[in-house]
Amino acid sequence: MTSGADELPAEILLKIFSLCAYSDLVKSIPYVCSRWQEVWRDRHIWRSLVYKPTRNTKRTSIVALLRMRPHLRAVDFSKRSIRCDIVQILRDCCHEVERFCLSCNTYSDMNRLVFSPVFLNIKVLVLTEKGIPRITLQYLSSYFPKLEHLECQVKYFSKSDLVLFLVKMQNQLHTLGLRCITSDGYCILPYLSLCSKLKTLSLRHVCPSLSPEHLPLEAVPHLKNISSLALENSSTNITIFSLATFKFFPNIKELYLHYYLRPTDIFDQVAMNFPHVEKLAFRYCYNLENDTCEHLRHFDKLTSLSISYNDEITDDHVKHFKEISQLTHLELYACDKLTSESLIDCCGFSQLQVLKFDFHYNLPCKLEPSHVKNKNLRIIFYRCKELSIVENLKKGGVKVSVLVDRAESFGNSVFL
After folding, report:
1. Among 279, 316, 329, 402, which has the minimal tally of Cβ within 10 Å of its Cβ?
2. 99, 50, 254, 315 alpha-carbon torsion, rounded to 10°
3. What is the mean pLDDT of residues 263-272?
């Protein structure tokens, strides 16, 4: 006789299983009962999940799961160093994999990988910097023939290698993430025009001396399809002059700036060089002055703003966000000087539809349902331990939910 969860239809159980943690899905659920095991074997669960083993996951467990679950669509090894024999098993057993993130231990491992047989169905590839001192890009085009999205965090590749790779991939590459400067000192910008279908561009280690001269005018017409741009530099600040280089990308609607250390008049410069920007994100961007934030009113098309990992932004900065007339999505994460006053102010923005707010260090909250002016506003709290606040807001008709922390992107990529 069955009871409780056993009586639920298979479709409902599938939905519940898809929301479970990966460890529970692998170690617990298939051993509860024979019916759960039968539903657990359904291929649709595994097609929608990302298999991401941790650094403590045993090799035998990884091999067993890859052989047992041939319907995996996404595998992320960014947190776990692996040997090439596991990659070979993945290739031989999981023929439906379309998204693949890899971190190799040594150059010899990577060398054996690129000379292995072709991965026919992989469309998204992320190569993390850890343990890959050098790689030949043109091999990727040969062994991942359907590749459409590449995020390559490797430090060393030459100009000639880059050109050969882009020529081979020019009719299919939609997303490209690379270092801005090649290992032999050449800027990659002039060669981006080889990819006519490129829509998303992520550049790491942007040189502060980068100038508009690095982008020849004959290359500009070929960059009109790029709508998403991410710029990152972990060592020196991206200067306003280097930022102006990208004004020749005429249709940028999504702009992500990481490690922008001295953003003097940054909002003015972004508004000047990227007049059509709709989504704007700042990560580890310091020295955001109060007067600088006032310039946000120039963004008449901005609908989404994200500021994260900034310990200088205060409640006074947040007040200026109300002047962004079209703002519907706002995220404030790991901004440790913000108080509940900022949360209350944001809930008073009549046009806001989604608010993501971080409860750092058990931030005391005085938010009441009456503070929420827009009844369609959805509030998402990060790291909120005061569940009584959430229950009180729900009783007042406020749409609110809680996340343990931000969801990690595939392979720590900006866009994937």
Report:
1. 316
2. -160
3. 68
- Mean pLDDT for the stretch of residues 101-111: 55
Q: Which of 217, 212, 213 is nearest to 247 (CA)?
A: 212
110 contact partners, CB below 8 Å, separation of at least 6: 104, 132, 135
Q: Enter the pTM of the model.
A: 0.81
Is 292 in contact with 285 (CB distance < 8 Å)? no
List all residues 6 or more positions away from 40 whose beta carbon is below 8 Å from its beta carbon. 17, 25, 29, 30
- 3 state SS of 178: strand
Would you list the DSSP string of 60-119? HHHHHHHHH-TT--EEE-TTS-B-HHHHHHHHHH-TT--EEEE-BSSHHHHHHHHTSPP-
| Contacts (Cβ under 8 Å, ≥6 apart) of 408 | none
Phi, psi values for residue 258, rounded to 5°: -120, 140
Q: Which residues pair with 125 in a beta bridge?
A: 100, 150
Could you tell me the domains of the chain? 1-48 (1.20.1280.50), 274-408 (3.80.10.10)
Please identify which residue in the block is written with the tokens 């790689």. Answer: 135
51 forms bridges with which residues in the sheet? 75
What is the model's pLDDT at position 331?
A: 92
Phi/psi of residue 254, each to 5°? -125, 125
Given pLDDT bands bounded at 50, 70 and 90, which one contains residue 182? confident
Reading the block at residue 245, the tokens are: 């280089």
Residue pLDDT, tens place only, 227-246: 998 888 755 455 554 666 67
Identify whether the C-beta of residue 355 lies closer than 8 Å to the C-beta of residue 344. no
| Nearest Cα residue to 177 out of 161, 205, 200, 211 | 200
Identify the bridge partners of residue 152 per DSSP, sorted by sequence position.
127
